[in-house]
Amino acid sequence: MKVNIISIGNSKGIRIPRAILEQCNLNDEALIEVKNKVLLIKSAEKKPRKGWDKAFKSMHNRKEDSLFIDDTVDIELKDWVW
Asked: What distance in Å separates the CA atoms of residue 48 and residue 9, rounded to the nearest whole number?
């Protein structure tokens, strides 16, 4: 598909048809990179916990998944004196 490059202030831009935006799952953010003089525009998926399962499994295998707070600590502050 051929598109026109338009001026947007001091920059340039293109209009992406709605059908292509939906097909590529492009919403509010996108990732742009250049590879071999080719412009790639990819969806910036918002998956904040992506990869956590593998990271936790790796931590477990390295025995790095111990508790920060010992279970014997009185978290509810019942016996604390202020």
From this structure: 33
**In the structure encoding, which two tokens stand for residue 8, read together?**
């947007």
Question: pTM of this prediction?
Answer: 0.51
The helix or strand, by DSSP H or E, that contains position 60, with its residue range, turns out to be: helix 52-61
Return the closest-CA partner of residue 2 out of 18, 16, 22, 21: 16
Architecture of the structural domain at 1-68: Ribbon (2.10)
Give CA–CA dist 37/79, Å, rounded: 67
Helix, strand, coil % (nearest 5) of the chain?
A: 20, 20, 60
Residues 16-70 have pLDDT tens digits of 999 999 999 898 899 999 999 999 999 887 778 888 999 999 999 999 888 777 6
Q: Where are the domains of the chain?
A: 1-68
Query: Are 23 and 35 contacting, i.e. CB atoms less than 8 angstroms apart?
Result: no
